[in-house]
Amino acid sequence: MTAEQRILDYAVRLRALLREMPEPERDAIVTEIRTHLQECHERGRLDLAMKDLGSPEHLARAYFEELRIEASYVNPTPARTVGTLAILASQHLLAAFGLLLCSVGYLLAGAFLLTALVDLVRPDAVGLWTGQHTDGDTFVYFGWVDVADHGLATAPSELLGPFYPLVATAGALVLFVIADAVGRLFLKRMRKPKLVPNTQ
Amino acid sequence: MELETWTTQLRKGAAELALLATLSQQPASGTTLVQRLSVAPALGLADGTVYPLLARLEREGRINGQWNVPEAGGRPTKSYSLTEAGAASLAAMTSKWRDFSRQLDAVLEAPQ
Questions:
Q1: Contact call for A63 and B52, based on CB within 8 A
Q2: Average pLDDT in the A158-174 region?
Q3: CB burial of residue A187 (10 Å; 0-12, 13-18, 19+)
Q4: Which pLDDT score is estimated for B111?
């Protein structure tokens, strides 16, 4: 493979790996890296330059780490936060932990909201229930319950009544805010520039 | 902590400062910056670190990237220069670094 072919191959592979980026940004990065490799080739240091850049996979990952963290922190949305943590989680345990906490928070918020909506349609199916099992144990149960559950001594009673949708929605909002704050906190910790070891 | 891990952490903290300081001397392309920084190999600023860092600093508004496309159809090159925000950032980071290194030197030189 000639030097030009090697440079072109590198650029093509890098472009493919950066496909998630907006096209103008991706084009600028690939053009710049290609120019860099061509200049290095003219000075007889193409091999060293390719070694120092790392593989296209390594370089693409470095770009994503630098730019996504920045974008997610400056203009965070739940999807962007979770998406960035998901990408970082494959390399950073801290990001994986943050992703887990964040995802659980958002899922719980969604579950709370769902029960609030279901309660509007089927108030007898969802709520904060209390009752007594046949063995005498009292239970408090949140969510769905089969009112005709044969394990109960008496029909369970719902504690919140017409206020359940409001309480569940408030709970969803609180969980959403907490999940968002946790996600942004972990991204902030990941934000510092990282010298990724060159594995090529 | 292993020495290599500690060294990586140390370089991590210095990367931005080194890059901004180099750009403050004179605007430069990525290739030229890599060449200038190669005189300090202990900083560990390889090409694969410099370019993504440049992209982030540009997005943050601390450096400005300008494309030069030759009229004769030659190779486009991108030149970087420090912005006002970058210069302010550099001044603040330089002050912090000097304080930090002075105090660390004092700790290292203190009688055992």
A1: yes
A2: 88
A3: buried
A4: 81
Cα(A157)–Cα(B89) distance, integer angstroms: 62
User: Which has more confidence, B72 or A107?
Assistant: A107
Q: Which of B53, B56, B57 to mutate to test the interface with A (most CBs of A within 10 A)?
A: B56
Is ipTM strictly over 0.90?
Answer: no
Binding-face residues of A in 64-93 toward B, CB within 8 A: 65-67, 70-71
Query: Is it the case that residue B73 has pLDDT exceeding 50?
Result: yes
Helices (H), chain B: 3-25, 30-37, 47-60, 84-109
Q: How many CB atoms lie within 10 A of CB A43?
A: 11
Say whether residue B86 is in contact with chain A using an 8 A CB cutoff: no
**Average pLDDT estimate for A69-93:** 70
Residues in chain A with CB shorter than 8 Å from the CB of B12 are 192-195
Asked whether A77 and A58 are in contact (CB, 8 A), the reply is no
Q: Rounded CA gap, B44 and B108, in Å?
A: 23
Residues of A in contact with B45 (CB under 8 A): 195
Over residues A75-86, the mean pLDDT reads 74
In the prediction, which pLDDT does A125 show?
Answer: 76
Residue A185, SS3 per DSSP: helix
Task: Identify which of A38, A63, A67 has the shortest CB distance to residue B75.
Answer: A38
The amino acid that residue A4 corresponds to is: E
CA distance A99 to A95: 6
CB within 8 Å: A36 and B31:
yes
CA of A191: which chain B residue's CA is closest?
Answer: B56
Q: What is the total residue count of chain A?
A: 200
Residue B78's pLDDT is what? 93
For position A5, what pLDDT does the model report? 94
If 0-12 CB within 10 Å is exposed, 13-18 middle and 19+ buried, where does residue B42 land?
Answer: exposed
Residue A131 has pLDDT above 80, yes or no: no
